[in-house]
Write a structure and sequence with these properties.
This protein is mainly α and 202 residues long. The protein has helices spanning 3-25, 30-33, 37-68, 79-92, 112-141, 147-163, 171-178, 180-201; strands at 72-77, 100-105. A two-stranded antiparallel ribbon has the order 1-2.
Length: 202
């Protein structure tokens, strides 16, 4: 199987796993707290469509920015974390959104600071895409009331905050290592937007 075909398969599998995880997490508190399976199935189509934008555009943004900087980049599923993206919502009702990542292989000769700069912008490209989508959703909600548009706005803001956490393989750790002050500014903006959504709709 070629790299392009494998990348497409990995993205499709990741999208499906993440959609299932979101639908289950939105429908109860996991197996210990109870899951409303009928509700989960009713949520699944809308969540799948929302994540087609929120997840796919997030990963494509990483890849596109890396390629614009001249690096080789492709999406690759992490099947351990992909399994956790299903198991954690199933067991505990908490969303774990890390089914894979864009692998970046630097090309050519770069000064250390150049590569550090590149890695920062590559790392935040995905979360910034989610922030832009969430902000667009908020703007549309001023004109159109839709519970699914509210969900679109919330999921994008939540993905931005989650991915900017400075932990493990997440974007936030890579961005923080590249430039702490800029990471903090982007993370604070994401948290502020998510807080606005909670306070505004709470």
């Amino acid at each position: 199987m070629g790299i392009r075909a494998r990348e497409a398969l990995d993205m499709a599998v990741s999208l499906l796993a993440l959609s299932l995880g979101f639908a289950v997490a939105m429908s109860g508190r996991g197996l210990l707290g109870g899951i409303n399976w009928a509700r989960a199935l009713s949520y699944l189509p809308a969540v799948l469509v929302i994540l087609l934008f929120a997840f796919a555009l997030h990963e494509l943004a990483h890849r596109q920015v890396a390629r614009r900087f001249g690096h080789y980049a492709f999406y690759q599923a992490d099947y351990l974390f992909l399994a956790l993206s299903l198991l954690i919502p199933l067991l505990f009702g908490f969303i774990f959104a890390a089914p894979g990542a864009v692998v970046v292989i630097p090309r050519g000769h770069f000064w250390r600071e150049d590569l550090r700069r590149d890695m920062f912008f590559i790392s935040v490209a995905g979360p910034l895409t989610n922030l832009a989508l969430s902000a667009a959703g908020i703007a549309l909600l001023c004109q159109i009331h839709s519970p699914w548009l509210e969900l679109f706005t919330y999921i994008n803001a939540w993905l931005a905050v989650f991915n900017l956490l400075p932990l493990g393989p997440l974007d936030g750790r890579k961005a923080l290592e590249a430039d702490f002050r800029l990471w903090l500014a982007v993370f604070a903006a994401a948290v502020a937007l998510l807080a606005y959504i909670f306070l505004g709709w709470g």
